[in-house]
Design brief:
Blueprint (H helix, E strand, L loop, with lengths): L1 H20 L4 H21 L3 E2 L4 E2 L5 H8 L1 H35 L3 H11 L7 H6 L1 H5 L4 H8 L14 H25 L3 H9 L4 H29 L3 H7 L6 H10 L3 H25 L2 H4 L1
Antiparallel strand pairs: 1-2
Helix pairs in contact: 2-14, 3-14, 4-9, 4-11, 9-11, 9-12, 10-11, 11-14, 13-14
Length: about 300
């Protein structure tokens, strides 16, 4: 009888634990509702308000949405945002994956690999704007890159397209966000059991076959997580394009900043909703590539 009572008491305790644990979610849920869900619902609501040149009224209309999807300026900004996002995503993978492969797989000393990863985040010890503006003296017509190329005789005239162009925006974003690709991939590569690779080598598999059949599939969760980080940050960008393109490259983020500065809240809200939907679609598509719940 005593044993039955103890068992019932333990079961009750186990049953109550998850319920008590739900309170731990309260601060996060309240924060997210107040500062994420409600602002997003408000943004969606404001996007249907009537916007005139000097004022905005809470009369619901589709005019701002029609203006957005019939304007070459807004659609051009949307296409430019998608194009630069895809380009930066590709360049961060091409630059970041080999670095992550070296740190996560070829460096056996955990301390050394940690030091190398810390070195990757050293640029983040300075201000974001300083990191962006530091590219101007590097990419300018009389900048360091042009001077070096002319000194060694590769070019005779400065390359003007390096600054105040789409190329300069891609270069700047790749340098700034590459570390968000390196970290997750290096983490996943570090989890690969070395005995699997050793067994493949003992069976005569070449490095490329081991990479294609073992390393790349096992590192894909890291690639997906890194792609999500990079995508969300690049799609929401406006400062890098404004600083390095001389406002020649307009992203959706720049459109939002301009519209807010002109007090055209409805147009800014429409651009914000479109950008949010785009980010949601990108993240959902990336999550379908790999089942992170199963792999992590």
């Amino acid at each position: 009888m005593t044993a039955i009572t103890e068992t019932s008491s333990e079961s009750a305790t186990v049953t109550l634990k998850p319920r008590k644990g739900m309170w731990l979610l309260a601060p996060g849920v309240i924060w997210m509702v107040l500062f994420l869900v409600l602002p997003m619902l408000m943004m969606l609501y404001v996007s249907f308000w009537t916007q005139t040149t000097f004022k905005i009224e809470p009369k619901l209309t589709l005019q701002s949405w029609i203006t957005f999807f019939t304007s070459d300026t807004y659609l051009g900004a949307l296409w430019t945002t998608v194009r630069i996002w895809l380009t930066v995503l590709l360049t961060t993978v091409l630059v970041g994956y080999p670095a992550a492969l070296f740190v996560g797989l070829f460096i056996k000393n955990k301390t050394l690999s940690t030091v190398l990863l810390v070195l990757c985040v050293i640029p983040f010890w300075t201000s974001f704007l300083i990191r962006v503006l530091a590219w101007r003296p590097m990419l300018g017509k009389e900048g360091a890159i042009n001077m070096i190329l002319m000194k060694i005789g590769i070019i005779t005239q400065p390359i003007e397209v390096l600054l105040f162009s789409e190329l300069s925006v891609v270069i700047g974003m790749t340098q700034i966000y590459c570390v968000f690709m390196v970290g997750p991939i290096a983490f996943m590569l570090g989890r690969i059991d070395p005995s699997i690779i050793e067994a493949a080598e003992d069976l005569g598999a070449s490095f490329w076959r081991i990479f294609r059949t073992i390393i790349l599939p096992l590192s894909m969760p890291g690639v997906v997580v890194g792609a999500i980080f990079v995508s969300v940050m690049v799609l929401g960008e406006f400062a890098t394009s404004a600083a390095l393109s001389g406002r020649k490259v307009n992203l959706l983020g720049n459109i939002i900043v301009t519209q807010v500065g002109s007090l055209k809240w409805a147009f800014a809200a429409v651009a914000g909703v479109v950008l949010t939907l785009l980010m949601g679609a990108v993240v959902a598509a990336l999550l379908r590539v790999v089942d992170l719940k199963k792999e992590l």
